[in-house]
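help with these tokens:
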Amino acid sequence: MNSKKIVLSSAVLIALCGLTGCGQEAATASPAEKITSVVDESTMLIYQTTKKVAVVDDYFGTKVTDNYRWLEDDMSAETADWVKAQNKTTYGYLEQIPYRDKIKSRLATLLDYEKVSMPFIEGEYSYFYKNDGLQNQYVLYRQKGNAPAEVFLDPNTFSEDGTVSLANIEFSEDGSLAVYLISEGGSDWRKARVMDTQTKEVLETELVDIKFSGLSWVGNEGFYYSSYDKPKGSELSAKTDQHKLYYHKLGTAQLEDALVYGGSEAQKHRYVSGEVTKDGKYLLVSAAVSTSGNKLFIKDLTKANSALVTVVDNTDSDTYMVNSNGDDLLFVTNMGAPNKRVVKVNALKSAPENWLNLIPETENVLSVSTGGGYLFAKYMKHATSFIQQYDLTGKKIRDIALPEVGTAGGFSGKESQSKLYYSFSNQKTPSTTFTVDVATGESVVHMKSKVNFNSDNFESKQVFYSSKDGTKVPMIITHKKGLVLDGSNPTILYGYGGFNVSLQPQFSSTRAAWLELGGVYAVANLRGGGEYGKKWHNAGTQLKKQNVFDDFIAAAEYLIKEKVTSSDKLAVMGGSNGGLLVGAVMTQRPELFKVALPAVGVLDMLRYHTFTSGAGWAYDYGKSDDNAEMFNYLLGYSPVHNVKAGTHYPATLITTGDHDDRVVPAHSFKFAAELQAKQTGANPTLIRIETDAGHGAGTPISKTIEQYADIYGFTLFNMGVKAI
């Protein structure tokens, strides 16, 4: 539809702020005043006016006003009404994008193929996950020898709409029993069911209120799990900061489960887990106050009422068990080794002074898996994989050859296995599963991806660019072959930059859809991640967090300078901590980007630690109540607090889930309200709130297709793309 001149009253104009260029001054205009504005009826937006209820907090003598605190109440009808109104506006806009359905159709085609996971051995069976194509949840199958595979557990039967997912499963050592966790609506809260693997019968009443939990069996008698006390008030947003480790004995009520660790101020930690050695002799207990660093304890399970013995008494480093053989334990640790090393220790003398280096630290970041009686050192060099095989004495056996530059994962299994499985992929190459013979190191293709995508038509390259302070940062850029670098290419720049997380090159069907549309996809390996070890992580934390944003801004400037794209064709995208990243850079350099796509973001940096287990992120962020310096630093970049009236912000599509109890949706709600109230110019500011969805894990494929169709459609539409 052609643009036409429409006369708008100031009441409507206030609702339209963010589309027609009105600033704060418009809100004070007389109701009788008439303002003439030109809008395009085909994409006209009428935002709900979000009421302001001022709440003032005093931080070290500085008063901060929060006008949208009321949106933090996820149990209120008023918040629910706000969500409905916002979604109505958002979907009304998205439905007018002419090629939205075409993108959805292509996404469905790219995802509609048989997807099969790496197998794993439990008891007499080989288990694997499979999705026939567009099933909402993967089905767990099993196979004995050459017999036909059978369905073992089908999460698609858990709910009609696919929003109840299988979150985890753990088998007893002999494979005769299993305990599995389910998630409802994407929530981090889980329920546990115990089953007999021969009959597939659920054996007892399900356990409830489990969260951030591993599962570890003791023979066939019972298992360890972790949880918090049920919070008072909202289950989705109330603070939870006392994690506890329990032992559940089969055949007993959950109320009788024994508390192993936690429950007192002396044992108060936000993350607690337990792992039993494969012979059932020892329990290792990890306790952490944040997402980085853990204490470690050991308990002799062969002795009644034995005490927990301290292995590591502080949270200055990360240490976890990777293998056990009687009293001999192997740990992976970054204590005294920022890039990690493997150490051997006797369980009876497990203190750090008794650790013996088995695989020393190198210049590359290490992770380790075991199988077939060997250790597999998975090294990361410039965010890509190379693999070395060692015996259990630390002797290097060989390098494992990989097909090309990319990411390899797996190499784990039972000690008795002669062959192990691993996967390989990169940004343009769909995942292939291989078997590796542990005796010879020879790899053979086990299964190739059946995705309908021709990787030969695309190219991927790694570049290094300079950040603001001169630090070299790697970035992988993927696009169609023969791309003309004239600055006109629609480009998504993706980043994370936190929590020691490494973004290694991997294939994604949803990303493939963007590439097929002619888009460029760039992934920057920012400080705060783990690509270069603990030092790289620490360089993007707390009072150094701005380094992460500077790295991302420099990535955007590089793409523009090299004429890969331009500011009018550049979108920034990230989720969770990456949502914070997008929120920070779009408020610091709004002119640099055309589209901003913050997903499930941590956006209120003054209050993030007051929700659920958010205080556990303080290692990366610090907290606003720590001290005045930390408060002022957080205030300086907190996206919610740095939206300024009269600013032209990028076209923004905020995405979140109404059941996200990790990064509560209030972050996104408040950021959307601030942007809608203060945005100047024609760029839309929308929030898409998925119902019965959480932080991302377990999302049904049907919802994934719809979400990415909306994201890509919104992005291209606001870049001025008329047709695809």
Remarks:
- The chain has eleven helices and 42 strands.
- The mean pLDDT is 91.
- Residues 465 and 473 are 5 Å apart (CA to CA).
